[in-house]
Specification:
The structure is a homodimer.
Chain A: E1 14-19, E2 31-46, H1 54-65, E3 69-78, H2 84-102, E4 109-116, H3 123-132, H4 142-147, E5 156-161, E6 167-173, E7 186-191, H5 197-210, H6 213-216, E8 226-231, H7 240-260, E9 268-276, H8 279-291, H9 293-300, H10 307-316, E10 326-329, E11 332-336, H11 344-350, E12 355-361, E13 367-374, H12 378-384
Parallel strand pairs in A: 3-4, 7-8, 9-12
Antiparallel strand pairs in A: 1-2, 2-3, 2-8, 5-6, 6-7, 9-13, 10-11, 10-12
Chain lengths: 389, 389
């Protein structure tokens, strides 16, 4: 996955287009689509928020139908959430417009919106933009990955090639990483592998739990968060196990990229939990550590304050045996049933790097889980203190 | 409750003492006790953390026995959490030492520790301090309220007098207010009202849910969080309903004081939820708003970003009907089933004050709930980025 980003192309049969339609006040690219020339098997997971946006609600309905997909249209700048019936109509109109230009069914197009909540889409700009989008279709992935960004400081791509030549290309966006109620996160994966939709959908929730949700924490919880994988089968039959393992690798790579690009972040925070009673408890404990403002602040200050790990694990509700619990910071054991003597200055020095890793053994079982976050900086506050006004 | 703080005394039959025992490196007061000359009926609630500290575990055992209390001993500076068997022994020794000097049973003394997690108590200092504490017993409440502080910037007291002359005096500490895994919070109330212990214990959980837990969010979740009320009956029979209402008022006052003194806080954040399906959902929605770093950052910047309220409510899982939902900021309606036109500059100006209030109607029922938090400032990060090293 070291190929220079500008050269990454979508898998065969997929093309994408991006443009500046004027939705973002900045004039940056804000409207984009990915189109498949063949029907796609697909899997999807959307936010569990009770105030989910129109795009999530509509996609979920299409998902339930089980019918194949042909395209995805995304706008950035306006989330079209909490916009009532008008918002639902606008969202459907955005999909219909692309379907019409592509001459596919409107139910073959899913949508995704991200940006400020509570504003209606500027439909004149959206519709005239969508009308011209397909003229720009090309194989390159970077323009799409860039057009879906909001407060992200860099585009997020990950890709892999399977043994039969099939490829998986993933893109993601999301930067407000401090908490589940963050700015919207998307993760999309496109593949020319041929996979059975039932098998894909059966495996997808567990993959999402270990990747996308391991940065969102507490499940999918913004109004617009979503992740989807589209498989058009152009590369022919693909070993399912190999495919799913590779898909998880791409999703995991994207999840880490999102965490590392958290608003105001200077370091990636990785928490690896072992010795848990179940994978769910391991993931829950790891996520609770990654979302803790106290631990995140400590990581920012390169402070090996492992007491905050103990506290966050306790808060997560995961079963622990404190007397058998172990904690390491950057590989240095600091707690084993009780405080250990260690060189705090040296550990602090080792934390002044791009990634800080806490290993935590709960001492009760054999399940494991990993989650990612970022440090909390003063910059986070200044980014978010004045976003709309 | 406007009496100058230095003049507040404990209810009759209670006296307190505080001293600097050398537990805090700063040399500030860090060891204190409250003693009742009569047996106290009591109620208690401790953290639900799975890594609860020794003091919480021991108090819970005493609570289960139902036997009366005579004293509370508190140290600040070291939380004595994640300290294993040695920590449990030290905690019991601290209680035993005070019981011995007071000539009461060791099971009549509860303990509370707050400060850095994972350090053992300096028992030589604690024990020699406890030995001399009772020499300093006096009626004033402020020295005790001050000695239990850690990162608090001010002491927290609230008191009320009932119609029969009985009084309730409450003290609290807690400042790391951004999240449930905050630094430890205590709230203690002392009263000379005579109340039935069974009735008190029956009513206490709901009062805690509406007050103490409405700032801690997600229940009691630090390793050492606790709240307790001690009633020694010296003022004689008291109307139970009047007492419970007054107790809730004192606890609510303390909860707001804790929120307003959040680390780095410049404003109190109050979220009042109505129209919920249940009180639990109303409280959950209000708390989720108060803990949202995005909303807290917006409050810091005086940004009426009500979209973050919609998002936080959605994340809380509370039942909502978005088309019937209403949001007001500082009394100005900004959302009613969809975005409303309002003077954003004027509302922003009105947020530049000590308390910012969001009113949120979920549009599904008639239950209500209120929660308190504070804004998120860059100062929070600097306070917490370098706490132990």
């Amino acid at each position: 996955m070291t190929e220079p980003l500008p050269d990454v192309t979508f898998p065969q049969g997929f093309r994408a287009a991006a443009m500046a339609a004027g939705i973002k006040p900045s004039g940056k690219p804000d409207l984009s689509c990915v189109v498949s020339e063949r029907d796609c098997a697909w899997a999807f997971a959307g936010t569990r928020s009770t105030t989910a946006a129109a795009c999530v609600t509509r996609n979920r309905e299409l998902y339930a139908s089980g019918a194949p997909l042909r395209a995805l249209v995304v706008n950035a700048g306006v989330a079209n959430a909490a916009t009532g019936q008008q918002g639902a109509r606008d969202n459907a109109d955005m999909a219909d417009a692309l379907a019409s230009v592509l001459a596919v069914g409107e139910a073959e197009v899913i949508t995704a919106s991200t940006g400020v909540i509570g504003h209606l889409l500027p439909m004149d700009k959206v519709l005239s933009g969508v009308e011209h989008l397909p003229e720009e279709l090309e194989g390159a992935a970077l323009p799409f990955a860039t057009a879906i960004m909001t407060t992200d400081t860099r585009s997020k791509l990950a890709h892999v090639t399977l043994s039969n030549g099939a490829r998986i290309v993933g893109t993601a966006k999301g930067s407000g990483m401090i908490h589940p109620d963050m700015a919207t996160m998307f993760a999309f994966a496109f593949t020319d592998a041929q996979v059975d939709q039932g098998a894909l959908r059966g495996a997808f929730p567990a993959i999402v739990a270990r990747t996308f949700n391991a940065v969102t924490v507490d499940g999918d919880t913004s109004t617009n968060d979503m992740t989807a994988v589209l498989a058009n089968g152009a590369a022919g039959e693909t070993d399912l196990t190999e495919f799913l393992t590779a898909l998880e690798g791409v999703m995991r790579d994207l999840a880490r990229q999102i965490a590392a690009d958290g608003e105001g972040a200077t370091r990636l925070l990785t928490v690896r939990v072992t010795g848990a009673a179940s994978e769910a408890e391991a993931l829950g404990a790891a996520r609770t550590c990654c979302v803790s403002p106290l631990l995140k602040s400590a990581v920012h200050g390169a402070d090996p304050n492992w007491g905050r790990v103990i506290m966050a694990v306790g808060r997560s509700g995961a079963g622990v045996k404190v007397e058998a619990m172990k904690v390491s910071v950057q590989g240095v054991p600091v707690f084993a049933g009780g405080p250990l003597n260690y060189d705090a200055a040296a550990v602090s020095q080792s934390m002044k790097t791009d990634e800080v890793i806490f290993d935590v053994d709960l001492g009760v079982g054999s399940a494991r889980g990993e989650a990612w976050g970022c440090d909390l900086s003063a910059e986070y506050v200044s980014i978010n203190a004045d976003y709309t006004t």
